[in-house]
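Question (not urgent): is this output format expected?
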Amino acid sequence: METINRKAKIREAAKRLNPIDDLLFRKMTESLPFCQEILRVFLRNKDLVVKEAAAQYAMSNLQGRSVVADARCLLSDGTSVLIEVQKANDDDHQRRVRYNSSVLTANITDPGTKFKSVPDICSVFLSQFNLFGTVQALNHVQRTLSKQGQAVCNGWQEVYVSAGVDDGSETAQLMKIFTEDDAYDDDVFPETSGLKRQFKETEEGQQIMCEAMREIMEEVAREERAEGVKAGRIEGKMEALASLVRQGIITASEGARQAGMGEDIFAVHLSQNN
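Got this back:
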């Protein structure tokens, strides 16, 4: 039974969420009009039309490594747009964008498709930090020939949006709504403002966000329990192998092989279990 104190803490945490937080962003991207509103700004196209939108879009590569993007949108011209939000500058995010884009390309391209028919994709990376240290809130990466400066295109666009830059642009104005608790603009960004207000200020919206937070907390708890059981099993196996070696039933070399490690490392475990 969830305690009253725990419920209150979850509710308070839900109220502090903003669209830059992936949990709230993913709920908002369930709305087609919201996706269309923000992409018209980020892609500099007021006539852009979003036909489909999927939150928490899951993909995997041939090796089975899973990728879950915050959202994937399909535009009327057939372009697939992958959207990710990041608050922490704790990784090589350009390579992250490149990797996720390649997985998306492989996932949406039918076998036997000629390269000229590989679908166009666009990666939109929203961050609370200034990834490139530029003075613009919106940065479109363009491929050019090094000497001629001629632009060349291979069907992939990279777009980086920084909430850490206020250059007075429409993008910066939108990112304030993404990051500041009390920032709204119903005239310019009605979909973004309306959804944010709904999830942060209405009882129905708060219930939805609290339930989403509970689900994540329960999932984390399950993973931690599974890791604990796995660690316990490994430790038990190591103790059993060490005992067999000490009794002379198997050699240290055989124990190391069964443990899946080198003999020198296994010897360290033997000394710790003496």
